[in-house]
Amino acid sequence: MLKDQQVGAVLPAADIARARGFYRDKLGLEPDNPDAEDNLQYTCGGGTRFLLYQTPNAGTAKNTQIGWMVDDLPAAVAELRANGIVFEEYDFPGLKTEDGIATTPDGSSAAWFLDTEGNILSLNHMA
């Protein structure tokens, strides 16, 4: 029933105005509903969408909450760094980043960063 349906992410924001500025100024995204005050809806590639909504629960998840697929991960990381994004460094069994990028044995790679609300976001490149 769901395998052919588009999916979208839902992200919490403690301060929706602060989040709007981050997604606009750092990621280059504008909301589809610019006049909204308690939620922001964004459309990205292929018609995929995500929603940011106001809640005091923001920043409590310790996992990746949304990720973008990119063709050139090092270039995307460099572009976001130029916008002030700081990438996370991880060193876990089976996952270690080097200069913010982790590469898996199958050749896939990813990089993670936080938004202003404490949400963990990622850039991903599949091998």
Automatic annotation (TrEMBL):
Pfam families according to UniProt: Ble-like_N
Positions of the VOC domain: 5-126
The protein, known as: VOC family protein
